[in-house]
Every structure is written in structure tokens, then in C-alpha cells.
Design goal:
disordered N terminus; mainly alpha; MetI-like fold
Length: about 325
Amino acid sequence: MTELKANTALPAPQDAAAQTPAPQLDPDAVRARRKRKAVRIVYLVLIYFVMSFLALAMVLPFYWSLITSLRPDSEIYALPITWFPSSFTIEHYTYVFETIPFWNMLANSLITTLVGVFTNLFFGSLAAYAFSKIRFTGHKIIFNIMLLSMMVPGVITLIPTFYVLLHFPFAGGNDILGNGGIGFYDNLGAVILPGCIGVYGIFFMRQFFASLPDDLAESARLDGANDFTIFFRIYLPLVIPGLLTLGIFTFQSGWNNFMWPNIVLQSPQNQLLTMAFKFFKTTLSTDYGPLMAISILMSIPIVIIFILMQKYFIRGVALGGIKD
């Protein structure tokens, strides 16, 4: 009986994968997939080539300024030009510190720039909150008028702005009517006041406030909070990436301000660092070594700030660009 059961036992099932025949791939589908892969590779190569070329084009002027500031004078004017100096020198940097009051100019530039950053962030965010979260009469009309003012070239407002600062009441010996003195002329306030708040900053920060829900403000008002409490304790911490991004933009704009300080500042003790370029360039000649040296020195703060805040800068631009 046992032998019969053994003889009649069912055969062991074979592997299902071995029984199932391998699917036959369509040759056309294979060629199409390989073609798509080749096209993608070519596309990526072109993208990286174009991006590398653009990056090189942007870095090249900075590199040329750096090596020019470290070349001896004999190599700056030598032909043909060389992309790497045979020897390095810091004599141009030494000449800069000996020729101009560098540290005084640096202090003036930092004062005007940092004050401008603080006022733009503070007043700009306040105005942006008002335009986005407070529905007062005519807020859309006022905001649109402000946007239209951005289309006016800044050179058109130079003379009116200079006149206002020159006749500012109780400034620089002026009376209540703005007469009798020089106002803010030849004063750091003439650089700070026109740039203490900008329409672009208000528009930029409004994008962030508009993206936040209004329910936060309504809930806080039910608990008895006023608008200043709602702004400082609820909304302001949520728009920090926007504040940091606007701070970078404002710092760069104020740090590179050149034309307006040359109009309103005259005394050596009130001059900014951007005004140092005129000491190394005349109508007859240009001293390229010190000129490039001061350019490199001026670019250092911008590079440091961008490196330290690059993460917040990219995040702020991305968030601000997708809001209504």
C-alpha cells in the first residue's frame, strides 16, 4: 500500500519562472527608448555646456579684476595680455590705503547701508502688511499708484529730491520754511533719507504677506490683539525668508550707490567708499592697479553676505516669485 502511494504521488511543481517564456521586446520600442535616452543625454550636455559658459562669462570679470590688482604695473599694460601673472604684488592695495581715508569711507558706507537696510525692512514690511491684510479705503488705488512710480526713471527725480533735501526744515541751519541753510547737503542723511523705504520693498514683502491666511489675524483679533501685535508676533516670524532676501537686495543697492553720493556729499569726512574710484581715474589717465584693488575690497562684503545667506536668498526668491 505504501509503495502504491509512492508511485501515484503527484510530480513536484516546476519553477513558474522557468515555465513562463521570457517576453519578447518589440524592436521598435527598444529603438524608441534608446533614442529618447540619447536625446536626453544630448539635452543635458547642452544645458551644462550653456550654464558653464554663462558661469565663466560672469566669473571672468571678477577674475580679471583680481589678477590685475595683484599684477605689477609693467604687466598690466603689457601686450599681448596674459591670463596669469608671472609675479604677485600687494603694492596696489598698499597704495589704496595710503591715498584715501579707507576706514573712514568704509564706516560711512556701512552706516548708510545698514540704516537703509533696517528702515527698508521695517517700514517696507509694515506697509506690505497694511496693503495685504488691512482693508482700508483706497488701498488698491494707493498701491497701484506706488507701482506706477516704479516706472519713473530715477534720474528724473534727482533735482526734485536734491531741492527737498536742501530746503528741509530745521536741517543744516534752515528755518521752519526750509530757508537760511543748506539742509541735508553734505550730510549722510542726504543719502539715507531718499532710500530709507522703497516701493520695490513694499511690493516684494506684500507677496509674502498675501500668501499667509487671513484667519490668523481674525483669530488674534477675537482674542483682543491689535494690528501691531498681530504683525510682530504672528505674521512677521512667518516672512523671515522674505526679509532676509530683501535685506540682501537692499544692502547691495545701498553699498553700490555711486551717483547720488557724488551729488550730495562733498567733504572728505563724509564720503563713501564708492566715491574712492574717482581718486584713481582722471580725464587723462586711469590707474588700473589701485582701481581694481578698491573694486575687490568693495566686493568682499557682498560676497560674504551672499555666501552666508545663500540658502535664505534662494528660498525667499522662490517663495516670493510664486505668490499672487
